[in-house]
């Protein structure tokens, strides 16, 4: 049963007209296609590659396929709104080939006439549209390997930040040891490979506990205090 289902999907893939191997058209080499301020359309059955930052558009409607170029860092798509409709697809990375560069969609509310039902500033899909976004696999948290004192800008982690896919420019939070607000810190440097250190900016706004910490507890009758260690933060 499961096998038949897979076969069905495979056949469906083979007969889908434009999702096949045909290489996408580079949007940057057809710059007259969508002028600044226009209502730009990726027509059904067309497959475009977003390989530049297009001029600021009033709106972008995707009825074919728009594939974000995974190989280029820091591209920006700026439009009043982005609508994917019909059998359209917006693809920013796939599960097997995630997008590891920075991609920005900037919705400006700049178009003259809002969409009749969806409004004036949105990224939306309707009908059988697909919006696919897969970013780099990321370790989202780890532990501090030692205390960080207020004012320090280097901290030692329990794990290698590179193995977590952390990068310079990423923003992290450090959970508070005492009551207080968790504030964002930007990673401005990673220590040498294998060092498990990161440099943050601004410097630590408070003291944070990290690593192993002995806890002494003397109970009433017991002659020897109980000792234990706690990995904090
Ligand atoms: C988004 O686009 C608007 C209009 O061009 C611009 O003013 C704004 O700075 C852009 N925002 C970002 C985060 O790039």
From TrEMBL:
The keyword Signal applies. Keywords: Signal. The keyword Signal applies. It comes from the Eukaryota. Residues 25-146 form the G8 domain. SMART domains: G8 (SM01225). Residues 1-21 form the signal peptide. InterPro entries: Fibrocystin, G8_domain. Pfam families: G8 (PF10162). PANTHER family: FIBROCYSTIN-L ISOFORM 2 PRECURSOR-RELATED, POLYCYSTIC KIDNEY AND HEPATIC DISEASE 1 (AUTOSOMAL RECESSIVE)-LIKE 1. This is Fibrocystin-L. It comes from Symbiodinium microadriaticum. The lineage of its organism: Eukaryota, Sar, Alveolata, Dinophyceae, Suessiales.
